Structure formats: C-alpha cells, structure tokens
C-alpha cells in the first residue's frame, strides 16, 4: 500500500491466525494493531486530531496537550507534529525510557509530574495538564477518556475485521479508556448481533467493580478513573489478571507465537487462548493486540513471578474482589434489574444510574415525570413512566418492565421516596429498610421524639399543627428559634426567627402548604426548634448488617441567616481525633434511636459548647455532591456501595487514599433573570480544581439562595489540606461571574 505521509500509514493492520490448543475447527486470530506506526492508539490520535481540526476546536498551528504515559502519547506526537502542531505530553515517572526517547525525538515537550495525588498518578497528571492549558492560549486537549472520537476511531478496525474474516464469534480486548473494545464491538454488533464480547482488565483496576490499587504494575489497561468511553452494556464477560499473570502471558506470547508485544497484548493473548481451548468447533475468536514489547524489556520481560501463576481462572460473581486470574459473566441480554424509584436532582442521582450499569445491572428508573432529570439520556437507564405515589402502580410497572428477569433490588436517591421504597422493597421481598424507620427519618417531628426517648442530644423543640400554638412553642424553646416543616428537604422553608411575629408569620406560611415540590401531600406540621450555635458538620455513615461505620465527617458552610442553605463542604473536616470520634458516636446513637441498620445515612450535627447536638437524620446518601467528595478523598464510592447494598451485595468501606476535597456552590448575588455564568473555563484551569459544573439555564429567574434549589452550579477541588482546598476554591470562584438582569 502506497502512502503519501506517515499518517496515511495508520490502520489496515494484519490479522494473523494463531497456533492454539483448541478443538478442530476452532479458529483463533490476532489483530496486530501493534503494527501501526507506533501502536493501536495511532488510530485514535488521527481521528481526534483530524476531527478537532475539521470542527475548529483545534486551530492551525495551535498546541496540543494530552496526559499519557504510553501509546496514546506516541500517537498524539506522531499525528500532531506531522500536521504542524506543538505537542505537550504530561506523564509520570512510570514512563519507560524508550517511550520518553521517542517522544523527545519526535519533537514533543514532555512534562513529568513528580508525585501522585490522592487520585493517583492520573490525578497528578491532570492537575499539571490544567496548569499547561491555562498558560497555552488556544491549546487543544483531546481528552482521550471522554472524547467520543476515541471509540469512533475503531469503526475502521471493525470494518477491517469484517473485510478480512467475514464473521467473528468472540472478540477479546483490553480495557483502559474503553475506546478500542467498545468502539470495535459496537460497530461489529450492528452486523453480528450474536458476537460475544470479552473485556480484559487487571487486578487493582476499578473499571469493573474492583477496589482501586494504584500500585499495580501493568500499563495500557486498567484505570483509577471511570472513563466516559466505556459502554458496559456491550460486554458479556470480563477477566482480571494479576501483574505476574499478565507478564507471564506476555512472555508466552513471544515464545509461542513469535509476537514481541506489551503486557496489554499478553493479557489479551492469555484470555484468548483460554477461551479457544473451551470453544466448540466452528468458533472464530479474535483478540486485539495493541502494543509492541520494546518499551517493556525491563518491566515485563525481565520480571519473574513471585509465586505460582494461575493455569485457569476462577469464576466469581460480578463485584467480587479478586487478587488473581478470575472472570465474571455480565450477559448483555439478561442482566438483573435494579429499580430506582425516582431520583434526586443534584447530580448524584444520575451518577447512581450509571454506577448500576457499571456493576452489571440494568437500571430501570420509575418516574412520574422523567423530564425533571437532566442528563437522564446519557445514563444507559431504561425509564418507565408511572404514578410513583401509587404502590400498586409501581409494583405493576416493575413486573411489566422486568418480565421473568431477576429484580436484584429497589432503591432511591430521593428524600421524598424513602418511605415508598421501603414499603415496595418489602412487598417485592427485596433488601430494604423497615418502613417505620424511613418514616421516622422523613418526618422530623418523629425523629425528634425518637432521639428524645433515646437520650440523644438535640435542640429543644416543639411540634405544632395550629398557628395558635406558636407563642407557646417559642416560649418553650426560646428566641432566636428555627421554624421549619417536618417533611422538607434541601433547606426549603427553613427559617431563623428572632421574634415571635416572624416565627408566627413563617409557621402560618408553612402550614398553608398542602403539597411539596414533588406534589406529595404535606404533614401540615411545623417544628419550632431551639437555635443551636456552633460549627456545623455532617457525619457520613454506612450501615451494613446492623453495624454502623463512620466513613468521615464533612465540614459544612451555610449561607447568612435567616436561611440555612449549604454553600460549600470540605471532606474530611479538619478536627481533633477526639472531636471526630464524638461526632461519629453521636451519629451512631441517633441511627440506633430510629432503628436504622442498613445502607447510607447523612447525619447533620452542630458542635455546641456542651457537645454535639443532632439537627437531622437523613436516611440516604448526602446531597450536595458530598459522595463525590468522599470518593475523591478516600476512594470509597458511596454510590457504588448504595447500589451494592440495595442488591444485597457485600459493601467495601476501606479507604485507599487520603486527601482533602471540597465543593463551593455557585449562586446569584441578586434577584433577577440569569443572563450567563462566565469565567468557568478560567476556573477549571486553576491548579487543584477538578470540575466546574453549571446547572443554571439563561433566562431562569434566580435569587440569592434561600434553599438548595437556588444553586446554579459548583466547583470541586482537591488538595493535601483543608486550607489548600479552600484557597483553591476561593481562587476559582473569584473567576466565575453569575450575570443577572432585573426583571
């Protein structure tokens, strides 16, 4: 094939039949992607860069910046420099000297970070990349892990397989960013619906329901992040190999097939030959071999295993923690259903649906009005519209949506549906809370009574259902006081009152409300509480088989009185060990008082001069993106643990990293109509900032925050201390302007 440039030489790699121990009539092939100019990622680099140039995202001569320690770096270097762009590669000390030499020879600028962050080497690289982007005007970041052109690049690979082989029965590929296997299999499944897709991962990678182990030695597959390019619905089976097993397989590939490749190719080869040995006659299997072995001479080829290497895999239920060669089935056509009854609207609800997909479930969202959930279309979730206030209608919808398939569990991420979920889970014979426990959490007057009976410290309180009783209630608890509905959420209608007139006026307003924001009938009761002074914290708890574990304490900041809107959080709070222990024990006693014994809980506490006082018990995960802060700070994915608990799976609550993370919410400074939220791109470039999200749409009526529904977005940052996180958030938020006009 004649090529005018080296970029034109990308693709059209050979398919080679392998010698394998298999039944007669079984055909085993390797797609030698390692014979691209540098490796398989050359395809992706070409696709992303050419598309960016075509769309205008990458201007002529503008620099390209990417984070990579392997073949993607080489692909970007090849295509980018060939087309006249300066290329900056951010990598880490694990980069091998051969790849580093190649990158420098191609004319790249290579930036090597010095130390990993709490999110591992990838987190450190992304922080350095953000710094580069802020100093390189017009720079283009391909973002291989979330760029849809990554999987799109592999449609040509699928076309080549069809052209060379006609048909394929089993496709085996490694998973790192998710692009190659998912892109190739998605294109093949359009023409070969019976194709079996097998993913290969490494022990210690979090991609498929495993705890993250950043010290794993394999490169090119596995991840400490969840890439957007993985479509878990395409896979039928996943295998994990330990470092020793992967490196042994790589040496066997060279010895048995004369293919000198990297550990990613070796891992694929081990799974491919295992499947071939068990395949029936007439089966055609193909493995994608992505990388050459030259950069693995010292790390793989001179490595010797510390112990015996498994000859066969152990089959495990999906989600089981593994330490050696194991596999789990996640069949495309018959995945167990995990039903969600409505959702919250702050972002974690949609993340929970994606988590269910990643854990091998088919999530089904039961919703009265699915249009209220922004981002639902991108979750991979099936939606069933039904009357979620009717238990009979929900039960009928669940049965119709699932047919004869297994219903693994029923859960919710919404405060407003905790009681419903408990009742329905019991009716379906699924794991769940006792309905009376959820009622005690949802009705704050019942919470107060339970805490009082158990002797758990809390503010003085009175419950009233008639405005005529307000004077007596205020006299009992004292001024200033807090007046709020017993069944609210998101600080809605919670007001600080410094005189009886204000308290009476607000109580009258609350008692007049007959339906909440979800259209549910209100209890028509008001809590009048003592106003307790002191810093506010929330204790993130998780109960498993009756044992309550404190995951950590969140430091909270709230808006100026008379409202109590959370304006930011830092996790974990910077507290003496004794104080953290006291908060955790108070939260345990509070949960015990209401009979809470399973799943996540979010207990709000003020640390007063006389000790902790419980403000609220929320029988669900924290809102305000706190679960994301916990995950980034500790590695504990609370959303994943909620999904596991809902399905009766074992939960994992051991941290694998230690750092601080924080969030600051974006709000309007004055009432009016939202014009725009500007400066977010600059805020994203502040070192330490991990995410900037806006949720306010132009034209929306806004006001300074009175409840959580007035938030317009957020900034998340990470660092080594609370002070570092707060300084980063301050710097980022100063760059953001919420532009409004008066009506």
Structure description:
The chain is of the alpha/beta class. It is built from 22 helices and 30 strands. Helix 3 links the parallel strand 4 and strand 5 (109-112). Helix 6 crosses helix 7, helix 13 packs antiparallel against helix 14 (435-442) and helix 15 packs across helix 18. The termini are far apart. The model has no long low-confidence stretch (mean pLDDT 92).
**Large-scale geometry:** globular
Report the end-to-end length measured between terminal Cα atoms.
Answer: 66 Å
Output the structural class.
alpha/beta
| Estimated radius of gyration | 28 Å
What's the tally of helices?
Answer: 22
Biggest β-sheet description = 8 strands, mixed
Q: In what range is the share of β-strand residues?
A: 15-25%
Give the % helix.
25-40%
Strand order of the largest sheet: 1-2-9-6-7-8-11-10
Query: What is the number of beta strands?
Result: 30
Task: List unreliable stretches of 5+ residues.
Answer: none
> Which whole number gives the mean pLDDT?
92
Task: Summarize it.
The protein is an alpha/beta fold and 743 residues long.
Secondary-structure map with pairings?
Blueprint: E1 15-17, E2 27-32, H1 41-55, E3 64-67, H2 71-82, E4 87-91, H3 97-105, E5 109-112, H4 120-135, H5 149-152, H6 155-165, E6 170-174, H7 179-191, E7 196-202, E8 237-241, H8 243-257, H9 263-277, E9 284-289, H10 297-301, E10 314-315, E11 326-329, E12 337-341, H11 348-358, E13 362-367, E14 382-385, H12 391-402, E15 407-411, H13 418-428, H14 435-442, H15 444-454, E16 461-464, H16 470-477, E17 481-485, E18 495-497, H17 500-511, E19 526-530, E20 536-544, E21 547-558, E22 566-571, H18 577-594, E23 599-608, E24 611-618, H19 626-634, H20 638-646, E25 660-666, E26 672-678, H21 680-684, E27 689-694, E28 701-702, E29 713-719, H22 722-734, E30 737-741
């Amino acid at each position: 094939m004649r090529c005018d440039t080296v970029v034109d030489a990308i693709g059209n790699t050979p398919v080679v039949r392998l010698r394998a121990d298999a039944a007669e009539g079984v055909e085993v092939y390797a797609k030698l992607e390692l014979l691209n100019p540098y490796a398989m990622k050359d395809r992706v680099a070409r696709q992303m860069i050419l598309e960016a140039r075509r769309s205008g995202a990458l201007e002529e001569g503008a620099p390209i910046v990417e984070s990579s320690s392997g073949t993607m770096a080489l692909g970007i270097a090849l295509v980018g420099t060939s087309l006249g762009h300066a290329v900056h590669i951010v990598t880490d000390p694990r980069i091998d000297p051969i790849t580093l030499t190649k990158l420098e020879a191609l004319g790249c600028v290579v930036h090597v970070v010095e130390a990993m962050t709490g999110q591992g080497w990838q987190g450190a690289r992304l922080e350095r990349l953000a710094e580069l982007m802020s100093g390189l005007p017009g720079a283009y970041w391909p973002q291989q892990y979330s760029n849809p052109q990554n999987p799109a690049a592999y449609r040509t690979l699928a076309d080549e397989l069809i052209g060379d082989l006609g048909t394929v029965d089993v496709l085996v590929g490694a998973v790192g960013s998710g692009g190659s296997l998912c892109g190739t299999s998605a294109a093949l499944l359009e023409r070969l619906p019976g194709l079996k897709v097998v993913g290969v991962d490494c022990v210690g990678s979090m991609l498929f329901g495993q705890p993250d182990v950043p010290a794993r030695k394999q490169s090119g597959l596995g991840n400490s992040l969840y890439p957007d390019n993985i479509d878990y619905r395409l896979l039928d089976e996943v295998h994990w190999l330990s470092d020793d097993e992967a490196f042994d397989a790589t040496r066997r590939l060279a010895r048995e097939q004369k293919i000198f490749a990297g550990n990613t190719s070796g891992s694929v080869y081990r799974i491919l030959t295992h499947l071939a040995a068990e395949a029936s006659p007439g089966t055609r299997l193909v493995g994608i071999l992505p990388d050459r072995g030259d950069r693995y001479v010292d790390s793989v080829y001179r490595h010797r295993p510390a112990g015996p290497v498994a000859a066969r895999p152990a089959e495990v239920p999906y989600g089981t923690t593994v330490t050696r060669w194991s596999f789990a089935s996640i069949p495309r056509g018959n995945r167990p259903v995990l039903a969600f009854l409505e959702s919250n609207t702050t972002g974690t609800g949609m993340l929970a649906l994606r988590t269910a997909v990643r854990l091998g479930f088919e999530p089904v969202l039961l919703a009265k009005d699915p249009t209220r959930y922004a981002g639902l279309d991108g979750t991979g979730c099936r939606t069933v519209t039904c009357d979620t206030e009717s238990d009979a209608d929900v039960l009928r919808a669940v049965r119709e949506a699932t047919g004869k398939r297994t219903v693994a569990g029923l859960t919710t991420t919404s405060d407003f549906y905790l009681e419903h979920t408990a009742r329905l889970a019991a009716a379906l014979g699924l794991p769940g809370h006792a309905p009376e426990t959820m009622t005690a959490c949802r009705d704050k007057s019942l919470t107060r009574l339970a805490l009082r009976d158990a002797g758990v410290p809390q503010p003085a309180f009175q419950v009233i259902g008639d405005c005529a009783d307000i004077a007596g209630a205020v006299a009992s608890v004292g001024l200033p006081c807090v007046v709020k509905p017993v069944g609210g959420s998101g600080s809605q209608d919670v007001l600080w009152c410094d005189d009886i007139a204000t308290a009476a006026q607000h109580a009258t307003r609350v008692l007049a409300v007959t339906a909440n924001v979800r259209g549910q009938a209100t209890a028509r009761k008001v809590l009048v509480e003592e106003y307790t002074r002191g810093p506010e914290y929330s204790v993130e708890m998780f109960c498993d088989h009756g044992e309550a574990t404190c995951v950590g304490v969140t430091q909270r900041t709230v808006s100026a009185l008379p409202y109590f809107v959370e304006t930011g959080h830092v996790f974990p709070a910077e507290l003496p060990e004794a104080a953290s222990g006291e908060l955790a024990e108070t939260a345990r006693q509070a949960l015990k008082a209401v009979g809470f014994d399973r799943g996540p809980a979010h207990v709000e506490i003020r640390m007063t001069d006389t000790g902790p006082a419980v403000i609220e018990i929320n029988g669900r995960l924290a809102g305000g993106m706190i679960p994301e802060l916990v995950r980034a700070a500790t590695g504990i994915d609370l959303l994943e643990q909620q999904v596991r608990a809902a399905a009766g799976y074992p939960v994992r609550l051991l941290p694998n990293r230690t750092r601080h993370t924080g969030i600051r919410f974006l709000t309007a400074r004055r009432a009016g109509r939202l014009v725009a939220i500007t400066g977010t791109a600059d805020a994203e470039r502040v070192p330490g900032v991990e995410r900037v999200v806006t949720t306010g749409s132009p034209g929306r009526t806004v006001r300074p925050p009175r409840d959580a529904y007035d938030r317009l977005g957020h900034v998340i940052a990470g660092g080594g201390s609370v002070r570092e996180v707060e300084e980063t958030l301050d710097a980022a938020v100063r760059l953001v302007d919420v532009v409004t006009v008066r009506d």
